[in-house]
Amino acid sequence: MASERTQVGIIGSGPSGLLLSQLLDRNGIDNVVLERRSRQYVLGRIRAGVLERGMVELMRQAGVRERMDREGMVHHGFSIAFNNGIHRVDLRELAGGSVMIYGQTEVTRDLMDARDAGGGRLVYEAEEVRIDSLEEDGALLRYRTSGEDHTLECEFVAGCDGYYGPSRRAIPDTVLRVYERVYPFGWMGLLSQTPPVHDEIVYARHPRGFALCSMRSASLSRYYVQCSLDDQVADWPDERFWEELRRRLPDTLSDILVTGPSIEKSIAPLRSFVAEPMRYKRLFLAGDAGHIVPPTGAKGLNLAASDIHYLSRAFIAWYHDSNAALLDDYSEQCLRRVWKAERFSWWMTNLLHTLPENEPFEHRMQDAELDYVFSSQAMMTAVAENYVGLPY
Ligand code: APR
Ligand code: PHB
């Protein structure tokens, strides 16, 4: 049995865990990251890639600005297509902001490289990670690697292990409250080495179902179509995907859509989920471990970033100034922002998807709401300020 100690034990090496590890390290706070998967597996996951200003700022604070600033694409607007037309939301004019297009895979890679360069302690393929004891003054983590048992004695635990990880389950049922909405459809996503159909992101509402045109670079496109929850990737050969996407886009886009072989295809269900509180004793949940948003609006990664902003700041105040106020405030402060992003993601999802059990009344409500958004400066401003990200 090998035993180690650290100040902050971090479970999970997604964006939340890596960002926290890097920020703590830069502030002289010792930490160890335990990740169930291999490094290659973590880097193989394709996720969204729209960074709010706060996330960009946090990456810079973490000392990983270089490649992001060079390769990331700054977008000053995005569009919503409906009724064969395309309507732009000008983020700069309406909200004085922008978003940066930089894939979550790249964010993860940059943070992993930085942790390696800084001599960070990251344990990949850590099996059976569990929180063995959780007290008011510390916690004990247990795990196995290469057939050997390990313990990690921690002053604090950061649960950055996503929706399926063990951290949230360490909070007793009598304390934890969960709020959930599962949507009756999924997204079929496709990545292809083709030029994006439009120079900014386009969300499309169509009677056949929602579609989204996004990108990773000038030559790499990411597209999605709303699909059935019963669908498998095998149900969506490339030809069917492109044909369906084309039908859901306005003519101005479908006429110029460049198609090509898929590099990656995957289906994701859509879910809204919040667990409260985000702190229990010395355990702090961050990112997908505490909350899930449907991807409409691209808030998942950005919410993980705002949690890590609050959490890193709180650990720094504790270790540098013996001040526990921010740790005590963590859950409440995060949740206020989480719920607003949940609201926006839920609203965008309901506005743009075709609900299988939809009544004609709901369709008319969607029509009226879209018409209202694009005929009211106030509504469009509200959309823009949410899309660029509410302040921390
Ligand atoms: N032990 C150790 N690690 C675990 C365990 C476990 N039992 N269970 C899960 N993990 C790891 C996962 O393998 C994954 O690498 O925790 C990590 C969680 O990472 P993410 O799921 O990426 O979650 P997070 O870092 O909070 O990032 C949130 O990712 O899912 C997207 O849309 C989401 O963009 C958002 C962002
Ligand atoms: C993506 O590029 O994968 C993407 C963009 C915007 C979203 C969701 C996903 O809202």
Description:
The protein is an alpha+beta fold. It has twelve helices and 19 strands. Strands 1, 2, 8, 9, 10, 11, 17 and 18 form an eight-stranded mixed β-sheet that branches. Strands 6-5-13-14-15-12-16-19 form an eight-stranded mixed β-sheet. Helix 1 (15-26) packs parallel to helix 6 (104-117), helix 1 (15-26) runs parallel beside helix 9 and helix 9 (300-321) runs antiparallel to helix 10 (325-352). The longest helix has 28 residues, at 325-352. The protein is globular and about 65 Å long. The site of adenosine-5-diphosphoribose has 28 residues, from helix 1 and helix 9. P-hydroxybenzoic acid binds next to loops.
How far is the N terminus from the C terminus?
43 Å
Radius of gyration: 21 Å
Q: Average pLDDT value?
A: 96
Note the overall shape: globular
Helical amount: 25-40%
* Percentage of residues in strands: 25-35%
What small molecules does the structure contain?
A: adenosine-5-diphosphoribose, P-hydroxybenzoic acid
Largest sheet: 8 strands, mixed
Quickly count the helices.
Answer: 12
Q: What low-confidence regions span 5 or more consecutive residues with pLDDT below 50?
A: none
Total strand segments: 19
Structural class: alpha+beta
Summary of the model, kept short:
The chain is an alpha+beta fold and 392 residues long. It has 12 helices and 19 strands.
